[in-house]
Write a sequence for this structure.
C-alpha cells in the first residue's frame, strides 16, 4: 500500500460514484466478514461463536471456542447497480448500467485458549470498500464519475471468562485505507463564457491514504443453557486522508500560477470519521435441532455531515466538497439454524437495512436506499478438526429518486457542476448477490 496515496471514502461521497449497494451495508460499509454469517444474513452475530471469525463481531465470544482455531474464507460480491434519468435543462435521457464493480473480500482469523479464563485472537478483515465507474457517456459525470476505496483491518483481541454466565472481550483496530475519486465535465462548455472546457475535462480528482487506530469491546451473557445475549461496540476511527488533488475545480483557487485547464497536482488532505457501530444480539436453542437468532445493529452515520478538503497551497485552502447531512442507520436481522445430522448444519436468515440518508439528501455519488437481505447457508463437519461453510445472499435494493444539485442545499459549490453538463433528475436501482466459503481448522 502506497502511503499518502489517496483521499477517499468521504470524497467519494462528494465526487465519485460511490454506491451503497456496491458496499452492501449502509453507506460505504461492508458487512461481509465471514461466509458462515453470510448464510444467516448476519443475524445474531454478536451472540454466536461458530469459529474464530466470531471475534470480529464480538471478541467476548472467543470464550466459547476451545483450544486453537484458524478460520479463513472468501466472499464474492456481484452488485448490479443502475442509474437513469434526464438532464432537466434539455430533457435528454441518460443512464449508466452496472456501474459498481464486483469484488472478492478475503478474511483470516485466529483464536487461542490460553487457559480456562483467558482467550487471545487475531482478525484480518475489511469493514469498508467499493469500486464504481460511471459510463463516459453518462450525462451526470459532473457530479462524479469514479470512486474506489479499499480498507483493511488488523484486529488483535483478548477475552476473559468471568464465570459460566458472563464473558467480556476487547481489541484494538488498526485500519489501513486507500482509494480515489473523480468528476468530469459531461458536455462541452465555456467557463465564465470565455474559457473553453471540453467534455471529459477533469473537474476534480483526488487520491490518498491513511492509517488510524480504533477499538472494540463486547460482552456475553449466558442466561441459561439454551439462551444467550451478546453486545458489541466498535469505536469511531478518525482518518486524515493525505494525497493529491487535481482538476479545474482546484485550479480556480491556485492564484493564477497555471492555466485553469492544466492538470496540476496539489498536496492535500481531508478529515474523515468512520462511524461508531453497535450490535445487540440474541441466540436461543429451541430444540436439539433448531436454534433461532436475531440482532439489531446501529451505525452512527450522523457524524457524516459534510466533506471538507484542505489544500494549503490554494488561495482558499478549506473547500467544502459536499454537504451530506446523513442520519443514523439501523439494521434488523433474524435467522435460524437447523442441525440436519451430526455432520451437516443448515442456516437461513432475513435482514432489513435502513438507508443512512433521507430522500432530500440522496446523491448520485452515494444513492443510499433501504435493502432487504435473503440468505441461505450450510456447514459441514468434514472431520473432528475441519469444518467447511458456505453461504449465499441476494439483496434487493429499493428504487430511489435522486436529484443533483439538491434544491435545499444553498451552498453555491453544490450548484457549480451544473455549468459542466446541467442538472440531473432520475432514479437509482439495483440488486446484489453474494457467495462465500469458509474453512475452519481446530488444533
Amino acid at each position: 500500500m502506497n502511503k499518502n496515496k489517496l483521499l477517499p471514502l468521504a470524497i467519494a461521497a462528494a465526487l465519485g460514484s460511490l454506491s451503497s449497494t456496491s458496499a452492501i451495508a449502509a453507506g460505504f460499509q461492508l458487512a461481509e466478514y465471514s461466509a458462515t454469517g453470510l448464510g444467516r444474513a448476519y443475524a445474531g452475530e454478536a451472540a454466536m461463536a461458530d469459529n474464530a471469525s466470531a471475534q470480529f463481531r464480538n471478541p467476548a465470544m472467543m470464550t466459547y471456542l476451545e483450544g486453537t482455531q484458524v478460520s479463513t474464507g472468501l466472499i464474492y460480491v456481484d452488485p448490479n447497480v443502475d442509474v437513469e434519468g434526464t438532464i432537466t435543462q434539455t430533457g435528454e435521457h441518460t443512464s449508466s448500467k452496472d456501474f459498481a464493480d464486483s469484488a472478492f473480500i478475503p478474511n483470516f482469523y485466529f483464536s487461542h485458549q490460553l487457559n480456562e479464563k483467558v482467550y487471545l485472537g487475531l482478525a484480518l478483515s475489511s469493514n469498508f470498500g467499493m469500486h464504481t465507474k460511471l459510463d463516459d457517456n453518462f450525462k451526470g459525470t459532473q457530479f462524479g464519475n469514479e470512486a474506489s476505496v479499499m480498507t483493511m483491518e488488523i484486529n488483535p483481541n483478548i477475552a476473559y471468562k468471568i464465570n459460566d454466565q458472563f464473558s467480556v472481550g476487547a481489541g484494538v483496530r488498526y485500519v489501513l485505507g486507500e482509494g480515489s475519486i473523480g468528476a468530469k465535465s459531461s458536455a462541452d462548455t465555456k467557463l465564465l463564457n470565455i474559457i473553453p472546457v471540453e467534455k471529459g475535462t477533469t473537474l476534480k480528482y483526488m487520491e490518498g491514504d491513511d492509517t488510524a487506530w480504533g477499538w472494540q469491546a463486547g460482552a456475553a451473557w449466558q442466561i441459561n443453557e439454551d439462551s444467550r445475549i451478546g453486545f458489541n461496540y466498535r469505536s469511531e476511527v478518525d482518518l486524515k486522508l493525505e494525497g493529491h488533488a487535481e482538476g479545474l475545480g482546484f485550479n480556480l483557487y491556485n492564484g493564477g500560477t497555471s492555466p485553469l485547464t492544466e492538470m496540476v497536482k496539489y498536496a492535500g488532505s481531508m478529515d474523515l470519521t468512520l462511524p461508531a457501530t453497535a450490535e445487540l444480539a440474541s441466540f436461543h436453542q429451541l430444540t436439539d435441532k433448531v436454534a433461532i437468532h436475531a440482532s439489531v445493529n446501529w451505525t452512527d452515520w450522523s457524524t457524516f455531515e459534510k466533506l471538507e478538503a484542505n489544500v494549503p497551497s490554494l488561495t482558499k485552502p478549506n473547500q467544502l466538497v459536499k454537504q451530506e447531512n446523513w442520519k443514523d442507520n439501523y439494521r434488523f436481522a433474524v435467522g435460524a439454524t437447523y442441525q440436519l445430522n451430526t455432520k451437516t448444519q443448515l442456516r437461513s436468515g432475513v435482514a432489513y437495512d435502513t438507508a443512512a440518508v433521507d430522500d432530500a439528501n440522496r446523491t448520485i455519488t452515494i444513492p443510499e436506499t433501504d435493502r432487504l437481505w435473503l440468505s441461505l447457508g450450510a456447514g459441514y463437519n468434514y472431520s473432528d478438526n475441519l469444518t467447511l461453510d458456505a453461504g449465499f445472499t441476494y439483496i434487493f435494493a429499493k428504487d430511489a429518486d435522486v436529484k443533483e444539485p439538491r434544491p435545499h442545499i444553498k451552498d453555491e459549490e453544490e450548484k457549480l457542476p451544473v455549468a459542466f453538463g446541467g442538472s440531473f433528475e432520475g432514479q437509482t436501482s439495483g440488486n446484489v448477490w453474494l457467495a462465500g466459503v469458509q474453512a475452519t481448522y481446530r488444533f
